[in-house]
Recover the amino acids of this structure.
């Protein structure tokens, strides 16, 4: 009986050790460490599709995470707080858009760096923002709008 109990303890310890190993491996690729990041804020007319925890990407590389997406009840705009790696210092003329890298991926905050010499300090506000353009909006613009075609000869 004692041998069976010892075997159960060894097996249980092994299962727990494997579970802790998987947890450590899973946390390795996430942004759990509080250091190494700073927060910025952005204002969007619409942040449709963007959620807290979404990726912040620049040039196809994940450089941060969205911390929160809230509505400013006075200005009636969406306030997005996001974190960037502290090695990055965005120029003041940088812009943000909401998009996705593929049809199957969730919405992300996409950073287009500017060229200004001055940079946005931690806690700073970005206002050059562009909401996500949905596939339906693109098709509608193509059918009912110009669709990127030149205006007809003779005006309009």
């Amino acid at each position: 009986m004692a041998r069976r109990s010892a075997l159960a303890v060894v097996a249980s310890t092994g299962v727990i050790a494997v579970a802790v190993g998987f947890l450590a491996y899973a946390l390795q690729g996430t942004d759990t460490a509080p250091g190494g990041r700073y927060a910025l804020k952005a204002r969007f007319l619409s942040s449709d599709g963007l959620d807290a925890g979404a990726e912040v990407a620049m040039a196809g590389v994940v450089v941060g995470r969205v911390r929160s997406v809230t509505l400013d009840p006075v200005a009636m705009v969406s306030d997005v707080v996001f974190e960037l790696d502290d090695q990055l210092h965005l120029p003041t003329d940088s812009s943000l858009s909401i998009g996705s890298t593929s049809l199957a991926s969730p919405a992300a905050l996409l950073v287009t760096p500017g060229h200004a010499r001055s940079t946005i300090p931690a806690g700073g506000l970005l206002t050059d923002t562009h909401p996500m353009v949905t596939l339906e909006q693109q098709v509608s613009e193509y059918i009912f709008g110009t669709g990127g075609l030149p205006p007809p000869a003779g005006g309009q």
